[in-house]
Design a protein that fits this description.
This protein has 758 residues and is of the alpha/beta class. The chain is built from 31 helices and 13 strands.
Length: 758
């Protein structure tokens, strides 16, 4: 029989470097799922030491400040240690925030579980001229203490070796409350739990004395006995007093293990503090964030890097005449950005592969319909969407840099000033920013928010953020806007991200003034010090993103391409429609009379007011097809055009052949970026929203996207409508605010009346 693998749990405060440690220990073996029964992220991986052959399963518990049941994360961490019984717990401490981190340490100590303390960021502490004596701290805590640097992967094998050895030695819980005024009460309560053979009796006893909510639910009779003990000793506020005793013990007994000079008052500003004076400045913070966003999109989408071409610097086409790599690095218009270069390389390689496949099929006299089917699925489906992968990864890379460096935490802090007026705390902006990557984890992250109304409002507006899947649609439409109307492609991408952000803030304000009205929750957030990203972890994340996108491209997108081919090549009576031949002699689908065209023509009138319905000519039904398929996966919006057009190069001719106006095309893009997200995000929203809120949320998504797209179409195609639309928007907000003030006064009057009645 295989030997049971040791389970190591990582526990610690937010921003203590716990996740960095997890990534360093587990590397490519890490995977992300959900905790059973709840949708808070669960991270698990395998540690292996090639030299000693030691291995262990590592579980990264959510970052929390204590083991009290105030948030889902605290409940998960507490229950995992108590009920799942890991073999050893590594408590990760941020050495630069020593006192605060030790509070949770004193709580974990009370559990009957082997425990190791990992002093992280000791290298940063030493730069400040301070030092923590690990041996002295180990004697005070009664458990091993190891100094490490998770970021620089220093001393990690030693930490795991000690942890694996400690796992084989049972440990009995101890408490720092054993010498205070509650010592006898704790001893009596512990005996009550021990007599009932409850595991971790000391921890449960202290929770019973605190009248802990979860403890009272699981062991109501024992909690009553604990409360009677407090009454006997005329001890009233155990929870507050015990917290005070913990901090006194930390200050008196544990902080003395830290030594070194104290930084002079005039030198107290760290490098991070000095940077924050600029990046979190009241007036400069938001413009700097917008400039950072614009730079990211410029480096990802621009075909005229730093606008050198516009400034008159002459360029000539490189690899001219090469059918696969023409204009790879630069064109007559300027130098390509890194995102465009990588996309060109990918498209060149996939184009060459498909040509080889097509020539091979033709050489064995493969029927035209078979070549057409494979071309639709492989070349126009899978390969076409894979061509967008480099730019998606570029965006993910840049956003990961901002997040890992600590800058995104500052952005949340800055936007708290705006969000607080809109009825949300800055904490809500964190899952919103995650929406730029993917809506699914962003919605899952709303579990950290305080109230149902705050979670509901945040989930609803996450759909407005331009996730990685929507980049394909943005890139496809931006190319047309650039070619036909002279718009700058990277500015189009930046504008779409900005539209999502502005629309989210506007709708949050409206919801706060109407359906989601409540008192603004407090926002407390620790700003981590700026630091260089961990490149190994970033590489792992990029690889996971690539795998996820390729998996989706090879399943959902291929199935969508197959669906388009089948329904576009058969009539409603299931008669095959013979293919036509294009100007290059290649077989292309003849959509006239097809099931697909009939269905989309029936639905097209819905989009008539938005400028991309049956008011167009040519193959106008493709606009409806793309919008419908986008509900399954946003990547398919662009794929619908590519598949019907018979290739990415023919998309512009297909779309412009409908006679669509500038307003209609922009409205099409806005509608698809802000309407109901993909099925996966809808399923996630269903699990996160309060009961009965999903149907209203879906109506909210549809209604908001339709109205916003309608206004955009009117403003672009009929400029005079601005004189109506702008006053109408102002009126809506004024009426919503007046309703909000009226409701608040009514609630205050009712509260006052109730107090007077009492």
């Amino acid at each position: 029989m295989a030997e049971k693998k040791i389970v190591v749990a990582l526990a610690g405060n937010p921003n203590c470097g716990k996740t960095t440690l997890f990534n360093s220990l587990t590397g490519a073996t890490a995977y992300v799922g959900n905790w059973p029964g709840v949708t808070v992220e669960k991270r698990e991986g395998v540690y292996r030491n090639k030299k000693t052959k030691e291995s262990a399963t590592v579980v990264d518990l959510p970052g929390i400040y204590s083991l009290s049941p105030y948030t889902p994360e605290e409940v998960i961490s507490r229950n995992f240690i108590l009920e799942e019984k890991p073999d050893v717990v590594i408590n990760v401490l941020d050495s630069t925030n020593f006192e605060r981190n030790l509070y949770m340490t004193t709580q974990i100590m009370e559990m009957d579980v082997p425990m190791i303390v990992a002093l992280n960021m000791t290298d940063v502490l030493e730069k400040d001229g301070q030092f923590i004596d690990a041996e002295k701290l180990s004697k005070e805590l009664g458990c091993p203490v190891v100094a490490i640097s998770a970021l620089h992967q220093s001393n990690l094998d030693t930490l795991m070796s000690i942890a694996i050895k400690a796992a084989s030695s049972p440990r009995k819980g101890s408490t720092v409350l054993a010498s205070g005024k509650y010592a006898k009460a704790v001893e009596k309560a512990c005996k009550i739990y021990a007599d009932q053979e409850v595991s971790h009796p000391l921890f449960h006893a202290i929770k019973g004395l605190e009248n802990d909510e979860i403890e009272a639910e699981k062991n109501p009779e024992l909690v009553k006995k604990c409360q009677e003990i407090l009454k006997e000793g005329i001890l009233t506020d155990f929870e507050a007093d015990s917290a005070d005793e913990r901090y006194q013990y930390i200050t008196t007994n544990l902080v003395k293990t830290r030594s070194g000079h104290k930084v002079a008052a005039k030198e107290k500003l760290s490098v991070s503090d000095k940077i924050d004076r600029v990046l979190t400045n009241r007036w400069a913070a938001i413009p700097i964030f917008l400039v950072a966003l614009l730079l990211i999109f410029h480096l990802t989408f621009s075909e005229d890097l730093f606008y050198l071409g516009h400034m008159g610097v002459p360029f000539s086409m490189n690899f001219e005449g090469n059918p696969y790599f023409e204009g790879l690095f630069w064109t007559d218009g300027g130098i390509n950005s890194i995102g465009v270069i990588l996309a060109n390389i990918t498209n060149g390689i996939t184009g060459w592969i498909w040509d080889m496949i097509e020539k091979g099929l033709a050489s064995v006299n493969t029927p035209d319909w078979t070549i057409g089917l494979l071309g639709s699925v492989i070349n126009d489906g899978f390969f076409a969407v894979i061509g967008f992968l480099p730019q998606i990864l570029c965006l993910f890379f840049f956003f990961s840099l901002l997040e890992d460096s600590g800058y995104m935490a500052r952005v949340a802090f800055v936007f708290d000033r705006i969000f607080r007026r809109a009825g949300l705390s800055g904490r809500a902006f964190i899952p919103m920013l995650m929406g730029y990557g993917c809506g699914v984890p962003a919605m899952i992250n709303t579990r950290t928010l305080n109230t149902d109304k705050e979670r509901t409002a945040t989930i609803r507006v996450i759909a407005f953020f331009c996730c990685g899947a929507k980049v394909t649609a943005v890139a496809a439409v931006a190319a047309i806007l650039s070619s036909r109307w002279g718009w700058n492609a990277d500015l189009v991408g930046f504008s779409m991200y900005l539209v999502g952000l502005v629309l989210a803030i506007a709708m949050v304000i409206l919801m706060h003034w109407t359906t989601q009205r409540e008192k603004v929750p407090p926002f407390i957030m620790e700003l981590p010090a700026y630091h260089a990203p961990q490149w190994k972890a970033l590489g792992i994340h990029m690889w996971d993103k690539t795998k996820g996108f390729v998996r989706k491209a090879s399943t959902i997108i291929v199935l969508a391409a197959l669906f388009i081919w089948v329904f576009s090549n058969f009539t409603p009576s299931w008669q095959y429609i013979p293919s036509m031949v294009d100007e290059f002699g290649q077989p292309v689908a003849a959509y006239e009379g097809s099931i697909l065209k009939n269905l989309c023509q029936m639905a097209a009138p819905v989009f008539y007011p938005l400028g991309f319905g049956n008011n167009l000519g040519g193959e106008y039904w493709v606009m409806t097809l793309a919008s419908a398929l986008g509900l399954v996966a946003k990547e398919v919006v662009a794929d619908a055009f590519i598949t019907v057009a018979g290739g990415e190069a023919a998309v512009e001719a297909l779309v412009m052949g409908t006679g669509i106006s500038l307003g209609g095309l922009v409205a099409f893009l806005i509608f698809n970026l802000t309407t109901i997200p993909c099925f996966a995000a809808v399923a996630t929203a269903k699990g996160e929203l309060p009961k009965g809120q999903l149907k209203w949320t879906i109506l909210f998504w549809l209604g908001t996207s339709y109205v916003v797209a309608l206004m955009v179409r009117l403003m672009f195609d009929f400029v005079w409508t601005l004189a109506i639309i702008i006053p109408l928007i102002i009126l809506i907000f004024v009426l919503a605010y007046l309703w909000y003030r009226h409701a608040c006064k009514k609630e205050e009057a009712a509260k006052l009346e109730k107090e007077l009645a009492q």
